[in-house]
Amino acid sequence: MTAPSELETAVNADVPAEPTDGYHLVVDALKLNDVRTIYGVVGIPITDLARLAQAEGIRYVGFRHESNAGHAAAIAGYLTKKPGVCLTVSAPGFLNGLVALANATTNCFPMVQISGSSERHVVDLKQGDYEEMDQLAAAQQFCKAAYRVSRVEDIGRGIARALRTAISGRPGGVYLDIPAAVLGSIIDADKGAKTLSRLVDPAPRQLPAPDAVDRAIEVLAGAERPLVVLGKGAAYSQADDQIREFIESTGIPYVPMSMAKGLLPDDHPQSAATARSLALKKADVVMLVGARLNWLLNHGQAPQWNPDAKFVQVDIEATEMDSNQPIAAPLVGDIESVFEALAERTKPGQISAPTAWREELAARSAQNVAKMAERLKVDKHPMQFMGALKAIRDVVHERPETYIVNEGANALDLARNVIDMHVPRHRLDSGTWGVMGIGMGYAIAAAVETGDPVVAVEGDSAFGFSGMELETICRYKLPVVTVIMNNGGVYRGDDVNPLGDGPAPTTLMSEARHDLMIEAFGGKGYRATTPAEVTAALTEALASGGPALIDCVIDPSAGTESGNIGHLNPKGIGNFTGKKK
């Protein structure tokens, strides 16, 4: 037996006794930090990463478009309070995922987008590599943070940093760039294992300062017409019991933002949702809980708000204070800790809503509820939005575990007012940006993460952004029923091109058969032209527990321009005649 040559010695020194690679380290790092599901679209260079993740016990849900996979990861983060993970290919796939990443950041949903990328040395010299792009630079402006892993031994650290950043403080979207060369790099298995770490307390509690709590109590105690506004941040916090105890013990009326519906049941006696305009206009002290004074709340400005109102704001992000209005009593901390501190430091009876104020709002609520009931009684033909939505409301009322996903213009605005919610975090909609295209991604993630039935109430235009994911729903046999409000247009379907040489800009196909789309993928399709048919179809579809779609044929003349935000259009839009002046 001869001694090894110098060349053999050098080669053997470069080969680990028990090797691993970047692919395995990514999967090991995710598993170590309790990531159990990945949403994504495979391709170069992450196909084998998805295969390996699946082989190692991580559930991989494959989509038809990265934007929808990203939306799924984002809402998974919202529902679980753990970062949802989206996996995309480089360049175009990465860019497709950015819409969801930015939307997650805007809505404060914890999410990590992991993308493969091209060789750094080729990208930096712009030598024309496959799908060449400086993805880190592109991502930074759209998310909470962006990181790149440049060495295989840094994979564990990169994933730990991304997950912690996504969930700590105010949650948001994080981008993690892993070049193909890093994924394929070989490292000794023992050495690689030592580079991985499990996060310790990634979202630590942030306690409010005692003097800030006392200040808030003093402001609330002096109110004659107090009001609590619950945002989706309150729902995300899962401090359900603490929030309910505070509201019920003080008697303060509350208004829920759309994704906070169900935090307390919509029929709760203190809900002022059906008297919202009066509540905002007259409240003298407003407590914002996980809600921001952005466009959805008219920036806290008159005439929608009492110009003399004082604001108490509960938020984990100190820089949110005073963003639109002066905050008299900022309460910086996580919502659960804030409400525990309020309960501890408030004296019995110190904060209470005067009876006259509660009765005034209750009277207006009763009046508006009666008006809505009269509107819902009308059974017009062709079918109107209200008739279809009432049918949906009545069916899901018997199944409160059902998640409602909702997007569109009129489909969104009207469903928000018609479909009552009684369980927290069961209404998922377009959120702060009002972005269309979230529907199928949100529906898939809700079904995957919870196993409960999902009803996605979609405008026909909004559905078009993610409709191909019907195949994903059928492929995974998910309990998702998609209900399309089909009035044949964006806003409405009766607009006319004055030149007659093609459809008007807002016109879609009124004869579209969305029900046949899902049948092509093996699901059950229904076509409904009356509320009674909607009721029968939805009842049957939910009972089946499988993929289904109901195409609700709505009057093309039903609907308004831009739903409830037509005032944001420039003057004249929506009334254009095509005639020169």
Structure description:
This protein is an alpha/beta fold. It folds into three domains: 15-194, Rossmann fold (3-Layer(aba) Sandwich); 210-363, TPP-binding domain (Rossmann fold); 378-565, Rossmann fold (3-Layer(aba) Sandwich), CATH 3.40.50.970. Helix content is 39%, strand content 16%. The strands form four sheets. A six-stranded parallel β-sheet has the order 3-2-4-5-7-6, with helices on both faces. Strands 15-14-16-17-19-18 form a six-stranded parallel β-sheet, with helices on both faces. Strand 2, helix 3 and strand 3 form a beta-alpha-beta unit. Helix 2 crosses helix 3 (47-55) and helix 2 (22-32) runs parallel beside helix 8. The N and C termini lie far apart (100 Å).
Low-confidence stretches: 575-581
The count of strands amounts to: 19
Fraction in beta strands? 15-25%
Class by helix and strand content? alpha/beta
Q: Which fold does the CATH topology of the largest domain refer to?
A: Rossmann fold
The CATH H-level homologous superfamily of the largest domain:
Thiamin diphosphate (ThDP)-binding fold, Pyr/PP domains
**Level-1 CATH class name of the largest domain:** Alpha Beta
- The dominant shape is globular
The total tally of domains equals 3
Produce the secondary structure layout.
Blueprint: H1 6-14, E1 19-21, H2 22-32, E2 37-40, H3 47-55, E3 59-62, H4 66-80, E4 84-88, H5 92-107, E5 111-117, H6 120-124, H7 135-139, E6 145-148, H8 155-167, E7 173-179, H9 180-183, E8 186-188, H10 189-194, H11 210-221, E9 226-230, H12 232-237, H13 240-250, E10 254-256, H14 276-282, E11 285-289, E12 310-315, E13 329-332, H15 335-345, H16 355-377, H17 385-397, E14 403-407, H18 410-418, E15 427-429, H19 439-450, E16 454-459, H20 460-463, H21 470-475, E17 480-486, H22 514-520, E18 524-528, H23 531-544, E19 548-553
Parallel strand pairs: 2-3, 2-4, 4-5, 5-7, 6-7, 9-10, 9-11, 11-12, 12-13, 14-15, 14-16, 16-17, 17-19, 18-19
Antiparallel strand pairs: 1-8
GO molecular function, one term: oxalyl-CoA decarboxylase activity
Enzyme class: lyase
Cofactor: thiamine diphosphate
